[in-house]
Amino acid sequence: MRIAICDDEEIILEIIKEKCITILNESSIEYDIALFNNGIELLKKLENLDIIFLDINMPEIDGFSVAELLRKEGYDKYIIFLTSKIEYMQRAFKVKAFRYLLKPIDDNQLKEALNEVIKELFCKTKIILEHKNGQAILDIKELIYIESLGDNTAIYMTNEYYISNKPLKYWVNQLKNFFYQTHKSYLVNLSYVKRIEDNFAILKNNIKIPISYRKSNNFKVTMKNYIVKNAK
C-alpha cells in the first residue's frame, strides 16, 4: 500500500508518518510512505498512490485545488484532508474526500480512517470488466493471470477468458494488492503460483509465465511473504 502525506509543515509530516507507521505495523500489510511539502510536487508523482493525506492550508496551491486537479486527472482513490478549521468540511465532500481529520490529529480517528481504507482495499473480491459485448463482473479469486496485447489485455479466468480494452498498467493499479507483474507483459494472481522454476512462474494449471531478470529477486521475496501471510 502506497501512502502520500502532503503538508507544508515538516513537523506535521513527520508526526503523521510516525503515527501511520505505528498503526500499519500492527498489520501484515506492506507499505511505503512518501512525504511532500507542497501540492505541486505531489501532483508530479501520483502513480500507484492508495491514500493521500492532504493539508488544506498550503502556500502556492491549497489542498482543495490539489484535490480538484487529482480528480480531474482520474485519481479515484482515497483523499483524507488535514486541517485545523472545521468550516472547510462541506467543501471537502465536493471532491469526494474519504475523511476530514482535524489538527492536532487524534490517534483513534487516524487509526479508524486507515483501517477503513485497508478494509476496502484488501477485502475487494470482484471487479467490473468492460468488453466489446458489455460488462462482466469477475471474481478476483478466479482470475489467473492477465496478458498484455499492446493497448488491450487478455484476462484469463479459471473457465473462460475476456479481451479488455484496458492496457496492462490499468490492471496493475486495480489489482496490485492481489497480483504481481512478473514481466512487462504479464500480471499474475499470487494464489495460482505453484513454484518458481528458472525464469518462470509455474501456475497450478502448469502454465509458464515469464519473470523478467530485474523482477526475479523481488518476486521471490513477495512470494515468500505471501506464503507466510496466508499460512497463518
Automatic annotation (TrEMBL):
Keyword terms of this UniProt record: DNA-binding, Phosphoprotein
Gene3D superfamilies the UniProt entry points to: 3.40.50.2300, LytTr DNA-binding domain
Modified residues (4-aspartylphosphate): 55
GO MF, one annotated term: DNA binding
Residue span(s) of domain Response regulatory: 2-118
Source superkingdom: Bacteria
Record-annotated HTH LytTR-type domain positions: 127-225
InterPro entries linked to this entry: CheY-like_superfamily, LytR-like, LytTR_DNA-bd_dom, Sig_transdc_resp-reg_receiver
Summary of the function given for this chain in its UniProt record: May play the central regulatory role in sporulation. It may be an element of the effector pathway responsible for the activation of sporulation genes in response to nutritional stress. Spo0A may act in concert with spo0H (a sigma factor) to control the expression of some genes that are critical to the sporulation process.
The protein, known as: Stage 0 sporulation protein A homolog
Source taxonomy: Bacteria, Bacillati, Bacillota, Clostridia, Lachnospirales
